Amino acid sequence: MNAINRLRWKCRRGTLELDLVLQQFLERDYATLDANSKQAFETLLEAGDEDLWAMLNGEMPAPAPDYETVISLLRAC
Length: 77
Prior knowledge:
With 77 residues, the chain is mainly α. It has one domain: Flavinator of succinate dehydrogenase (DNA polymerase, domain 1, Orthogonal Bundle). Helices cover 64% and strands 0% of the residues. It contains 5 helices and no strands.
């Protein structure tokens, strides 16, 4: 399985809203990210659905400042 297919699989979540946001981001923005932002996105995918959704809605802060760029792009999806 290549890297992008592995990420597609990780973008499949328990909620339709997250599925849509993550998969749209992967198709639209992921390729344009620098290496640090790609790593941040992959790390964010390790978060639970509730925590990830709370970060995207601004109800929970990002775990580190490095994640803010990716979260801002995800919010735009």
